[in-house]
Design a protein that fits this description.
The chain is an alpha+beta fold and about 240 residues long. The protein has 6 helices and 17 strands. The strands form 4 sheets. Strands 7, 8, 9, 10, 13, 14, 15, 16 and 17 form a 9-stranded mixed beta sheet that branches. Strands 3-2-5-6 form a 4-stranded antiparallel beta sheet. It is elongated. The mean pLDDT is about 95.
Length: about 240
């Protein structure tokens, strides 16, 4: 027997917390009957439906993708643009953990494991994400200090981060900056640079927690090992 919210999460539909919300608002049924009790348990022979659609527990799959530019971090796109799941050869209902902007490249994880997705995106777990940013102009040391301490974006202070100049190219008047953040706000790195009037020309995520791109080329992917998955779970 398995708790209903875990069954839903394991199916890849959503996180356990979101599953609880769906149960409470009457969007979940077991064997044709709406269930609103959070402690309900089910087994593999029960028919579980979420929002009218029957779900099943698939085998868990975990992928690390080197996302190219001009690919959407989503399962589908209403403008018919290429999405990250198009690049993975699988029949499982995987989805991206978090997102990268349309023009941002680098590491993105995909899975059908709702519980792991919840761990990696929950704000309290402070999962580090490392980027290499190319910005216009010379990136000043005092600005690196300001951004590292946190600035007000969309009405709230960003968490402490790392901003460090790696190289300045005089010919193009552009700086290459190492950035490490533990949040996942929309356009966060770009917005933080913009706060101090820096225009972000390129952005690449080079590291997610302890995972790196390794020898992958843009558009390539690999499966995560069991050891890597366990290590990601330990970040809770």
């Amino acid at each position: 027997m398995k708790r209903l919210n875990k069954f839903i999460s394991d199916s890849g539909v959503c996180s356990r917390r979101k599953a609880d919300d769906l149960i409470l608002n009457g969007s979940v049924s077991v064997n044709g009957k709406v269930v609103r009790e959070l402690g309900t348990k089910v087994n593999e022979n029960d028919s579980v439906s979420v929002l009218g659609k029957v779900i099943t527990n698939e085998l868990k799959e975990y992928y690390l993708l080197y996302k190219p530019r001009e690919v959407i971090s989503a399962v589908k796109d209403d403008k018919n643009r290429k999405v990250v799941v198009d690049l993975i050869d699988t029949k499982a209902r995987i989805y991206p953990i978090g997102r990268l902007d349309y023009d941002t490249t680098g590491i993105i994880l995909l899975t059908n494991d709702g519980e792991l997705s919840n761990i990696l995106t929950h704000p309290k777990n402070d999962i580090p994400k490392e980027y290499l940013a190319k910005v216009k102009g010379f990136f000043k040391k005092e600005d690196a200090i300001k951004l590292s301490k946190g600035v007000i974006i969309d009405g709230s202070l960003t968490k402490p981060a790392i901003f460090k100049l790696k190289k300045y190219d005089k010919k193009t008047d552009s700086s290459y900056v190492k950035v490490i953040i533990t949040e996942g706000r929309n356009h966060q790195v770009k917005n933080m640079f913009a706060f101090l009037n820096y225009d972000t020309l390129k952005l690449k995520r080079e590291k997610y927690a302890f995972l790196t791109l390794g020898n992958l080329k843009s558009g390539e992917y690999r499966k995560l090992s069991l050891k890597e998955v366990k290590k990601l779970y330990s970040l809770k």
